[in-house]
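Reviewers of the previous submission asked for a worked example of the structure-prediction workflow described in the proposal, so we include one complete record here. The input consisted solely of the amino acid sequence. No template or homolog information was supplied to the procedure at any stage.
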Amino acid sequence: MRTELEEYFLNPPAGSAAARAVEFGTDLTLTLEHLRLTPEERIRKLDNFIKGVTDLKASVRVVDVTIADAEQHH
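From that input alone, the workflow returned the following structure tokens.
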């Protein structure tokens, strides 16, 4: 990645969209982290995130069923 681009995100110029994003509370270091990745790495990271969300949803369903079952037997 170009040094100028990293510098822009790490120390955005006053009045720029990046500076407004920082003022709003956006962590631009995360943007930089993603820009350092290749497109393939970004897709892989997104796929892993989606799998994690899917696994989490499945585990919540199991817990909900287990709790509901336990409540029926009391």
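The first helix runs from residue 3 to 10. We consider this example representative of the routine output the project will generate in years two and three.
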